[in-house]
Amino acid sequence: MKIPMLDLTAQYASLKEEMNARIVQCIERGHFILGEEVRELEARLASLSNVSHGIGVGSGSDALYIALAACGLKEGDEVITTPFTFFATAGAIARTGATPVFADIDPVSFNIDPDAVAKAITAKTKAILPVHLYGQTADMGRLRDLADAHKLWLIEDAAQSIGASFAGERTGQLSDAACYSFFPSKNLGAYGDGGMIVTKHDELAETMRILRVHGSKPKYYHQMLGINSRLDELQAAILNVKATFLEEWSESRRQVATIYNELFQEVSVPVETPYIGEQHVSIFHQYTIRTTSRDALQNALSEKGIATMVYYPVPMHLQPVFASLGYKEGDFPEAERACKEALSLPMYPELTKEDQTKVVAAISHFFKEALVK
């Protein structure tokens, strides 16, 4: 049997006719840079996030960088973020010249711990950059309070949480800006790279739009040092087709997660299933379990044709490129433990209960065999 982490071919099959027509229409229109498809998507995702502005850019990584740069982050400034994340989070901070300062995670949600953030704030701190891992937001209420109390920017790395909410408010509403990624494996994924920033601040949005086109306004007149990072018109056309199904797909993912939870309740295995807080609505970008037997379990599932992924094997503070920051093993024990225990299982809207049953049965079989040995 073969059970993939994600099946984009199944998704395309359901959208093929509409998708192909939209792509051809875009090509025949002959406008490929920042055209009507990008403007439509920007308006659509700003509305989804309940904010005023969407700014389409070349990738989720660029979205983070441009958002931070628009806030004026520079050398000598500090930005607090999580060590348990994809490299782009900390990399974007470093690209501005600012210093990433790490704060440990809550072991239950995998997201940054507000208490750890509070302890990390110094006179040099200029922003807090939480990551909403696996589809569930961080505790945005407490983080917003911290940002307000210390007059800090609050920027969300929402690459994995488009459409998620905290206390009834969507990603983007409780922050100064939220950054989305359209990498193909994301819940709203392009057929290549792409990203977007959403914000409620008019002036910030204008600065971001200038930064994405080399810092120019009008064209050929450069007010600031920007970069070339524009969401491709063809990718925007693809995303406009997909975006109409996003809420439906999010609900399907929650149903898949519920089935996983029920299946795990029927077996006795030493794994922790995802915890979703009472104030949170997750979009389940991933269904991530944790177990002290992670590596052996992953190998056993691979042998049975079941794909899994480790997000992430090495925390940011132990990455060689950040050695100069002076962190060492043991500084962030919860993030380090998560890197050894977290395992993401197959998760996508079209995943069948039959395949989920096979996944959980294989996990149960692994632990039964381990007991015998």
Automatic annotation (TrEMBL):
SUPFAM superfamilies: PLP-dependent transferases (SSF53383). It comes from the Bacteria. InterPro entries: DegT/StrS_aminotransferase, PyrdxlP-dep_Trfase, PyrdxlP-dep_Trfase_major, PyrdxlP-dep_Trfase_small. It holds the Pfam family DegT_DnrJ_EryC1. GO terms for biological process: polysaccharide biosynthetic process. The keyword Lipoprotein does not apply. The active site is at residue 186. The modification N6-(pyridoxal phosphate)lysine is found at residue 186. One of its GO terms (molecular function) is transaminase activity. Keywords: Pyridoxal phosphate. Belongs to the DegT/DnrJ/EryC1 family. PANTHER family: 3-OXO-GLUCOSE-6-PHOSPHATE:GLUTAMATE AMINOTRANSFERASE (PTHR30244:SF36), TRANSAMINASE (PTHR30244). This is dTDP-4-amino-4,6-dideoxygalactose transaminase. It comes from Aureibacillus halotolerans.
